[in-house]
Design goal:
heterodimer, A: 436 residues, mainly alpha, 3 domains, three-stranded antiparallel beta sheet, 5% strand, B: six-stranded mixed beta sheet, four-stranded antiparallel beta sheet, 11 helices, globular, binds adenosine-5'-diphosphate, binds magnesium ion
Chain lengths: 436, 274
C-alpha cells in the first residue's frame, strides 16, 4: 500500500518517455484548442470593429450640415395683407424660392445669367423651409429684411466638409470652379458655417439628401412601439400566465406550446404576408399605417414575450406559491400578489428585448407598404408613415453621396436605440436578479 | 434502543399538562388512499387527530407523511396527478366535499413548510397578508394588533419589533421559520400542520420552535411531521408511525415509544431502519 503511493508520488521525477510524450501532445492539443477559440473571438471582434469604424466614418458627416447666411428682403406686396392669412397655409404660394434667389444674387452680384444660375444652385431646393418657418413664427417681419441661415445644397456641404475634393478636374465633380469661388467668397464674408444637422432628425423624406431626415420614420417607429407595447404586454403576459399556471397539461396545451415555440422561429417576412392578407386586404386598414405595422410586429414579438414570461414565472420558486396557498390565498391571489410581482423584472426584460427586436425589423414592414416616401409627420397611427430601418433601407438604394452618409447616420441612430434598450434590459436583469 | 428510551422517559413523560385535551377528534381520516398517477402513495389510512393535542407523524423517508399532511388542508389539489379517496373530516365535515371552499379550509387549517418560505416582503407584510386577503380586519390599527399578537405568539416579537419594515428574508433561518408560524397563526387557524419545520434549523433554533409548539398546543390542534424521534417524543401527545404508505401504528406517544405493538415500529424507533 505505502510503496504504491510512494511510487505514484515520485512519478513527477521519473516520467517514462512514452508517457511524457503523450502528456506533451495532450498539452499541445489543449493549447491549440485555446488558440482556435481566441482566434475565432478575435475574428468576430475584428469584423465588429470594421463594421463600426466604417459606419461611423461614413455616417458622422451626416450629423453636420452647412448653412449660408443671407439677408432676405420680404416685400410686403408679395404676402397676403390679411394677418389672418399669414399662416403656413396662407403663405404657401408666396414665391419663397424667388426671394431666396434674389437674396443670394444681391449677396454675390452675378455678372452673367450663368453665374446667377450657379449661385441659385448653392442653396438647397428646400432652403425655403427655414425662411418660411421664421416668417410664420413672426409675421411682423413681413415688409422688412431678415438675416437667416439657409440650408446649402448637398454638393456645397460636401465641399465644405471635404468629403468631395476640390483638386479633381472640374468635369469630374458636380460643382463648378465658378461655384467654388462663390463658396470661398461666402466663407470670407463669414456667411458659411457648419452646424449640428437638426434636419436629419426633424425632416421627413426628401429627394435631396441635405433636406432628408428620419423624423417621420422615428415617429412611425415610436407609434409602432406603442402599439406593440399596448398589445404584446397584456396579451403575452396573460397567455403566459394561463399556460404556465392554469392550463391543464393535456394534448391541446402541448400542441399550443409547440406551436408557440415554432412561431418564434418563423421568418419575419411571413408575418408581413399575414399582415397584408389579414389587416390590409381583409380588415381593410390603411396601407403604410403604423397601426398595421404595430399589429404585425406584435404578432412577431408575441412568441418571444410569451416564452420569456413563462421562463420568468417558472423561475419563481414553488415555495412562494405554497406559502400563499397555505394561508388560504386563492390561486389567482397567489399568482397576482406574489408570483407576478416577483417575475416582473424578467417580464419587463423580455418586453424590452421584444421591442428592440420589433424596432430593428424591416422585412414584414416592406410587405405592408411602409416603404413609402412620406414628407409629413403622421398625426395618428392611422396616417402613412415609415419606420427607421425601412427609411435606412430606402436611403441605401440611392446613389447620391449625401444619402450614403445619411444611410450610415440612420444606422448609427438605430444602433444607439437598440444598444440603449438592451442595456436597460441587462441593467434590470442584474438589478432585480434574486437568489432564493 | 436504550438511548432513545431514556431520552423519552426523561422528557416526554412529563409534558406540560397545562392544556386540556378535549378528547374530541378535530380531524378524522377514514380509509384515506392517495394516488400519484398510477402509483399509490397511501393505503387506507385511518386516524383521529385530537383537538388541542400535538400529533406527530413519523416514519422513514418516502413513506407518505408529507402526502398525508398535505391531504389535511388539500394542498395536494395543486398537484395535477394527485388523487385522494376516502373521507377526511374537519369538525365532522368532509373537507373534500363540493360545498367546502378550499380557500376557507386553508384558513382554518394552516401550514408551515419544511424550508422556511417567507414572502420576499417586509416582516409586517408577511404577517398582514393573510388577514388582509381574508378580510379579518377593518382598519390599520386592528391589522397592527394582529401582526403584534401573531409575532408574540410565535415568540418573535421582541426580536423584530424594531424592524417590521425590513425584509422577512433577511432573518436567520430559525427566525424565518417562526415568522412563517406567525404568518399561519395570523389568519386564526384551528389546526396547524407542520412538515418537518425544524429540519433546516440548528439545535438552538429547533429548541425554540419546540417550546413554541408546546405553547401553541393550548390553543391549536397541531400535526407535525418529523424526522427526529426525539422531537416527536418531546413535543407530541399522539404519534403515528407510517411505513411504505401504511399507517402502521397510532397511539399515545408514550406508548409508541416505550411499548410499540408492531415490530416495524419497534425497528424504526430503535434505529434498525429509517
Ligand atoms: N408530487 C408528487 N408526484 C409524484 N409522486 C410523489 C409526489 N409527492 C410525493 N410523491 C411520492 O409519494 C411518496 C410519499 O412521499 P412523501 O409524502 O413526500 O414522503 P415523506 O414526506 O414521508 O418523506 C413517495 O414515494 C414519493 O415519491
Ligand atoms: Mg416529507
Amino acid at each position: 500500500m505505502s510503496t504504491q503511493s510512494e511510487v505514484s508520488h515520485s512519478i513527477g521525477a521519473t516520467i517514462p518517455a512514452e508517457v511524457s510524450r503523450r502528456l506533451k501532445r495532450r498539452y499541445a492539443a489543449e493549447r491549440r484548442f485555446q488558440a482556435y477559440g481566441i482566434g475565432a473571438i478575435m475574428i468576430g471582434l475584428m469584423f465588429l470593429l470594421i463594421m463600426f469604424v466604417s459606419i461611423i466614418q461614413a455616417g458622422l458627416p451626416a450629423f453636420q450640415e452647412t448653412r449660408i447666411r443671407l439677408d432676405v428682403e420680404l416685400p410686403a406686396d408679395k404676402f397676403p395683407d390679411d394677418p389672418a392669412e399669414q399662416t403656413a397655409e396662407g403663405m404657401r404660394l408666396v414665391g419663397w424660392t424667388g426671394l431666396i434667389q434674389q437674396a443670394i444674387r444681391d449677396q454675390l452680384q452675378p455678372e452673367t445669367r450663368a453665374d446667377a444660375l450657379a449661385m441659385h444652385k448653392l442653396l438647397s431646393p428646400n432652403a425655403e423651409v427655414g425662411l418660411r418657418d421664421i416668417v410664420v413664427a413672426d409675421p411682423s417681419l413681413i415688409g422688412k429684411s431678415v438675416s437667416v441661415w439657409l440650408l446649402s445644397a448637398g454638393d456645397v456641404d460636401a465641399i465644405v466638409k471635404g468629403t468631395m475634393s476640390r483638386d479633381v478636374p472640374e468635369t469630374q465633380r458636380t460643382i463648378s470652379d465658378r461655384q467654388l469661388t462663390f463658396i470661398d467668397t461666402l466663407e470670407e464674408q463669414d456667411r458659411l458655417r457648419s452646424q449640428f444637422a437638426f434636419t436629419l432628425f426633424s425632416a421627413g423624406a426628401s429627394s435631396y439628401p441635405e433636406s432628408a431626415g428620419i423624423g417621420v420614420a422615428l415617429v412611425g417607429s415610436l407609434y409602432m412601439m406603442l402599439v406593440v407595447l399596448c398589445l404584446a404586454l397584456p396579451i403575452g403576459v396573460a397567455a403566459a400566465v394561463y399556460l404556465e399556471e392554469f392550463a391543464p397539461k393535456n394534448r391541446w396545451t402541448d400542441v399550443i406550446e409547440v406551436n408557440i415555440n415554432n412561431l418564434a422561429a418563423v421568418p419575419s417576412i411571413v408575418f408581413g404576408l399575414l399582415g397584408l392578407a389579414v389587416f390590409i386586404n381583409f380588415v381593410e386598414l390603411p396601407r403604410s399605417a403604423p397601426l398595421v405595422g404595430g399589429l404585425v410586429l406584435t404578432l412577431m414579438t408575441l412568441p418571444t414575450v410569451i416564452i420569456a414570461t413563462r421562463a420568468a414565472l417558472k423561475a419563481v420558486p414553488p415555495s412562494i406559491r405554497e406559502a400563499a396557498l397555505g394561508i388560504g390565498a386563492s390561486k389567482m391571489q397567489s399568482i397576482f400578489h406574489h408570483v407576478l410581482p416577483l417575475a416582473a423584472p424578467g417580464i419587463l426584460t423580455s418586453i424590452i428585448i421584444g421591442l428592440a427586436q420589433a424596432l430593428g425589423e424591416t422585412a414584414p414592414l416592406l410587405m405592408i407598404g411602409m416603404v413609402a416616401t412620406v414628407f409629413t409627420y403622421p398625426e395618428t397611427p392611422m396616417d402613412p408613415a415609415t419606420a427607421l430601418p425601412v427609411q435606412i433601407f430606402m436611403w441605401s438604394g440611392l446613389p447620391e453621396r449625401g444619402f450614403v452618409a445619411r444611410t450610415s447616420a440612420g444606422i448609427m441612430v438605430l444602433l444607439t436605440f437598440l444598444i440603449f434598450m438592451n442595456a436597460v434590459a441587462v441593467y434590470l436583469r442584474k438589478k432585480f436578479e434574486r437568489r432564493w | 434502543m436504550s438511548a432513545v428510551e431514556t431520552n423519552i422517559q426523561s422528557e416526554t413523560v412529563v409534558p406540560p399538562q397545562t392544556a386540556t385535551p378535549s378528547n374530541v377528534a378535530k380531524m378524522r381520516g377514514r380509509d384515506v388512499c392517495v394516488f400519484y398517477g398510477e402509483k399509490q402513495a397511501l393505503f387506507d389510512v385511518n386516524i383521529d387527530i385530537m383537538e388541542r393535542e400535538v400529533t406527530a407523524l413519523i416514519g422513514p423517508s418516502g413513506c407518505g407523511k408529507s402526502t398525508f399532511l398535505r391531504c389535511l388542508n388539500r394542498m395536494n389539489d395543486v398537484v395535477d396527478i394527485c388523487r385522494v379517496t376516502g373521507d377526511i373530516t374537519l369538525d365532522s365535515q368532509d373537507i373534500y366535499d363540493r360545498a367546502v371552499d378550499v380557500v376557507h379550509l386553508r384558513a382554518r387549517v394552516g401550514m408551515v413548510f419544511q424550508k422556511p418560505n417567507p414572502f420576499p416582503k417586509s416582516i409586517y407584510e408577511n404577517i398582514a397578508y393573510g388577514p388582509r386577503i381574508h378580510g379579518l380586519t377593518r382598519n390599520k390599527a386592528e391589522l397592527d394588533e394582529i401582526v403584534e399578537t401573531s409575532l408574540q405568539k410565535a415568540g418573535l416579537w421582541k426580536e423584530v419589533k424594531d424592524r417590521l419594515d425590513s425584509p422577512g428574508t433577511g432573518l436567520s433561518g430559525g427566525q424565518q421559520q417562526r415568522l412563517c408560524i406567525a404568518r399561519a397563526i395570523a389568519v386564526a387557524p384551528e389546526v396547524i400542520l407542520m412538515d418537518e419545520p425544524c429540519s433546516a434549523l440548528d439545535p438552538i433554533a429547533t429548541a425554540k420552535i419546540e417550546d413554541l409548539i408546546h405553547e401553541l398546543r393550548e390553543n391549536y390542534t397541531i400535526a407535525i411531521v418529523t424526522h427526529s424521534m426525539q422531537q416527536a417524543a418531546r413535543v407530541s401527545q399522539k404519534t403515528a408511525f407510517f411505513h411504505l404508505g401504511n399507517l402502521v401504528e397510532y397511539g399515545e406517544t408514550e406508548q409508541i415509544f416505550t411499548n410499540p405493538k408492531d415490530e416495524r415500529t419497534q425497528g424504526y424507533i430503535t434505529g434498525r431502519f429509517g
